[in-house]
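Structure tokens please, single chain.
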Amino acid sequence: VVEAFKWLGFSATWVSPTGAFSGSLKLGDNQMVVIAPQPRERNAELHAFLAASRGASIALAPDGAQLDILPMLLRERRVDFVPLSIDKLHAVGGDYDPEQALRNLAQNNPNAVTVATNEQTAIAIAGGWVLREDAFKVNALVPGEGKGAAFFAAFLANYLESDGHVRQALLAGHANVASFAKFTARIRISLRT
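Here you go.
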């Protein structure tokens, strides 16, 4: 994930007080702390880090271990930005309709931006507005590994640069995934020859 952010122009330095799971990303005047997925036994450490980081913009990329505490973290205003897969959104939002699941999750913190993606679409909620953008059609296999990081990095970079223009950031995320797919397809072809 850090490399994807660096590629998009962020200066990225992993600066967690524990040295384990967080980093500081800076793009122009915008700075955000990004926390990657963690095992469940790290949740207490995550709570302590978030408590010590009050006032900082926090993006949490939760894994299954954080899904059960995500609503609480949102209610306590500890998280500002949450990228999820649509499958994880169903689990934490309590509904199989992605839009309703986003609305359910947003009730915990209407100021947070939550984005859920799958291979076909990305859906976001910000300020009570739900926005959806379909993925670009690509004539290349979109790899499973790395596409979430590619989307998240471009979305966040564009969101910060555009002062919160969510639809534009969704499109930037999809464009970066398409570029990533084309790039990895060229690498696979060159490795075969």
